[in-house]
Fold each of these.
Amino acid sequence: MKVLIVGSGGREHAIAVSAAKSPKVDKLYCAPGNAGIGQVAECVPIGAMEFEKLAAFAKEQAVDFTIIGMDDPLVGGIVDVFEEQGLKVFGPRKNAAILEGSKAFSKDLMKKYGIPTAAYETFDDPQEALAYLETAKLPVVLKADGLALGKGVLICQTLEEAKEGVKSIMQDKKFGSAGNRMVVEEFMTGREVSVLSFVDGKTIRILSSAQDHKRAQDGDQGLNTGGMGTFSPSPFYTKEVDTFCRNHIYQATVDAMAAEGRPFVGVIFFGLMLTENGPKVLEYNARFGDPEAQVVLPRMKNDMIEVMQACVEGRLDQIQIEFEDNAAVCVVLASNGYPVAYEKGYPIEGLERFEKETDYYCFHAGTACRDGKIVTNGGRVLGVTAKGADLKQARRKAYEAVEWVHFDNQYMRHDIGKAIDDV
C-alpha cells in the first residue's frame, strides 16, 4: 500500500521509520518532510496546512492511507477534508481535535465528566483575568487557549509575574490568536508523565509511558520549549497509577468525547501530573508527542500501520499493543538560541554512523538538504535516541551517541533522564 505522512519534524521521522518497517507499505511519501525523512520516504513539497493540495496529491498518487502527524492541520480540519473526498486518513476530525485546540474546551469537558484535573477559570477579557488574580492562590499557571507550539504556558510565582503574563498572552498577543482566551489554573506539584494512546472512537489502547523535559537548560531552567529530550518508560508511572488512570481518566475521556458527539479517532496524548492527591490531567494533545514518539514508537512491537488501520476502521478492540521489555532515551540537539532566535544552515557531520548501529536512531527535526549536504533548518535539529536494557543503560548510550554528530551553534541538555537516578 501507499502511505502519506503529513508533517516535517522529529515526530514525523519516527512515524516514517515505523511505517517503513511495516510489510504492508510499498511506497512512503511525506509532505513536506525533512532531510532525514527523505532517507526513508519520498518528500513532497506541499505544506502541512495546504489541505486541498495534499488531498489532490493523495488522489493523484492513489495513496491508500494518510497519517497526520502535526497538531495545526488536525485542529484546522484536514481529516474532514480528506474524508469528504473519500480518502482514508488517521487522525481526529476537527470537532474532536478541539481536545487539543482549545484548553478551555478540554478543561470544561473534564469538569463536566468528573475527570481529575487542576481547578481553573477561563477568561476572554484581560481585565476580568487581572481582577481574578488579585484573590487567586499563588503560584498560578496561565495557559493560552489555542495552539502555541507547546510554549503557551506560563508558571507565575508572584502576582506581578501573573499580571505581566496576562498582558503578554492576552494584550501583547505573544502567542498570537491562541491568547484571545486564557485559562488560569491552580499550580500542581508532582512528577509529570506523558502517556500516549490509540483510540478508535470507543476503544482505547494505552502505550508505554514517557517523561519529557520541557525547559531549555539543565536543571529545568530557562524557557519552555517543545521538548529537549525524553525517556520511556517512566519509573514513576507505577501499576497503581496505571490502574487509577484506566479507571478514572483514559476511557472516561474517550466516552466523554463520544457523548459530546465528537468521537475521537487517532492518538490521544495524556499529559499527567502525579500529585499527592493522585494523578490529574495537565493537558491533552490530539497526536503523538514530540519527542515522546521518538522513544515510544521504537519500542512498540506491533505493526504501527495495522494498529492505525484498526483505529480508522473501528476495530481496535481486536488488537493488543505490545512493547519490548527495555527502555529508550532521546536527547535533542538544538540550535543555540532556541526557542527564541537562532541561525540556520550549518552543515551536520557524523550522521552516517547511525546507519551502522542497531538500537540507535537519529531522528531529524529541523534539517534540510543544501548542495548535497544535510544542514540545520530549525530550533530543534536532531533527536538522538538509544535503546537499552534499562533506563540507565539507554541514557548512557544516548549520550555516547550525541558525540557522533556535530554542527556549529549546537546545544543540548546534559541531564535528560537524570530523574531515574532518584528511583
Amino acid sequence: MILDILSFSCPLILASIGALFSEYAGILALFLDGFITFSGFQLFLFVSLTGNFALGMILACLITTFYGLLFSFLVEKSKANQFIAAIGINLFFSAFVSFLSFCFFKNRGVLTNPSFYFSPIFVKIFSIILSIILVASAIYFLYFTQKGIYFRITGTNADVLEVKGIHPGNYRIAAWTIATFYAFFAGALLTLRVSSFVPNLSAGKGWMALAAVFLGRKKIWKICLFVIIFCGADYLSTILPNFIQNIPSSVLLALPYLTILLITALDKQK
C-alpha cells in the first residue's frame, strides 16, 4: 500500500516542483494543466508511432519543453498579462490535443494501442526512481548552485539581479520552461499509469500542485509531504468502495479536494 501511494503521488510531486520553479520566479504556473494533458498525449503519440518507449519519451519531452520555451519567450517579450496567457495556454492545449487526436487516430476520446502497454509494477518503480532523480536535481540546483540562488530571488528581489547585470526576464523564461519540463514527466507518468491516453488527463493536478506549493511555503520536503497526503486521500477514494458499499461517486471524486480545503483551513488557523 505504501508503494502504491508513493507511486500514485509521483506525478503530482513533479508538477509541484515545476510550480515551485515558477513561483520562485514570481510567476503563478496556471498553465500546468494544459501542459500535463498535452504531455500525456505526446508520449502516447510518439510511443505508438515509433514502437519504442525510450525514443517516444525523448521526442515527446523535447517537443513539450519546446512549447514551454516558445510560450514563455512570447509572453516575456510581449509583456503580456501572465495570468491571462496561462489560462489561454490551457484552453489552447485542450483544443489542440483534441485536434491532434482526431488527425492521428480519428478519435477524440480514450486512446489505446497494443504497443502502449506497461505492467503496473514497472510503472510504479519507474515513477518512484524518476521522481527521486528529478526532485534531487531540483534540490541541488536551487540550493547548492549560484544560478539556483539567483533563481530564488528573481520573484522577490529582481533588482539585485539587475545590479549584477543579470536580466530577470531570462530567469522568468527559464522558470516557465523548467515548469513545462516537470509537467511533461507528470503527464507522462499519468499516461503510463493507465497505459492509454485519457482526455482531460490532468484533472486539476495543476491546481493541486499550486496548492501544495502554497501550503509547503516553497520548502520541497513540505511540498512532497502535502502531495503525499493529497494523493493518499485520492488513493483512498479508489479503494474505499471495496470496503464501504453505496458511497456516492461525487463524494469519492471530491475527497482529494476536500482534503486540500481542510488542510488549507487548518493552516490558516496557525
Amino acid sequence: MTQIVRNNLRPLTGGTLLLLLAVFMVLLRQEANNWFMETSSDAGFVLTDVDITGLARTRNRDIEAVLDIDNGMPMLAIDLGDLQARIEALPWVKQVEINRVLPGKLFISVTEREPYALSQRNGQVSLIDPDGASITDRGLAAYSDLILIVGEVDAEDLRAFDRLKDAAPALAGRIKSAVRVDGRRWDIIFKNGVRVKLPAALQQPYGLHEAWTRFEELNRKHQLLEREVSVLDLRLADRLVARVTPDGRRKMQGKEWAL
C-alpha cells in the first residue's frame, strides 16, 4: 500500500515575501552603514573639535551637557537634527545651525532669545521674548526694569503693543505694565499708578490706535498723567472718564469728571 505524505508547508504569500524583503533590505542597509562608518573612521573622519558661537546668556557647558558626543566619534554617525533639537530645548536658545566640516569639526551657531518683557500668566511670572515665548522664571530681579505683561498674549498681541509704544515714545518710557483684558483690549498702567483703559484694536471706527493717539494728544495738552487721577477711561470716542485719587476727591466735588 502506497503511503501518501502530505506537505503541510504553505506557500508564502506576496505580503510575507515583501515583508521578508523589507527586513532583508534594512539589515543590508545597516550592515552597509556600519561598514561605511568603520571605513570613514579608519580614514580619519572622527570628531576632534566642536566650535560654538553666538552665546551670550547660555553657557558653553550647558551646550556640551546636552550634546552627548565625544571626541573620536565617527563624524558621519552624528545625528545633526537630534543635536539641534537638544540645543534648541535650552531656555535661552531660539535657533541653532549646525554644520559638519570633514574630517572632524562641528560648527554650532546659536541664536539666543532677546528678553522683551516680564509676563504674568496664571499667577506665574516669567521672562518672555518678543514672540511671547517663555525664556526663564529664574533670576527675574535682573529684568525688573522691563514692562510687565499680564494675561495671555501671542506674538501678534505683542507686535500691536510695540506699535503703541513706537507711536508715543515719551509715553512708552513711563509704562510699568500692560494688562490684556479678555484677549481683546489693553489696560496700560503707568509708573505713577495711573491706569489707562483702551478699546479693542478692531473696534470701528474708534479703536485702539485712535484712542492711544487721542490720549497722547490730551496728555501733551493737559498733563493728564500729572493729575490726581487713578483711572483714565478712553473706551468711548465722545468722552474721557477719569476716576480721581483720594487726594483728588478732597480737592474736587464728585468721584468722576469728564473732558
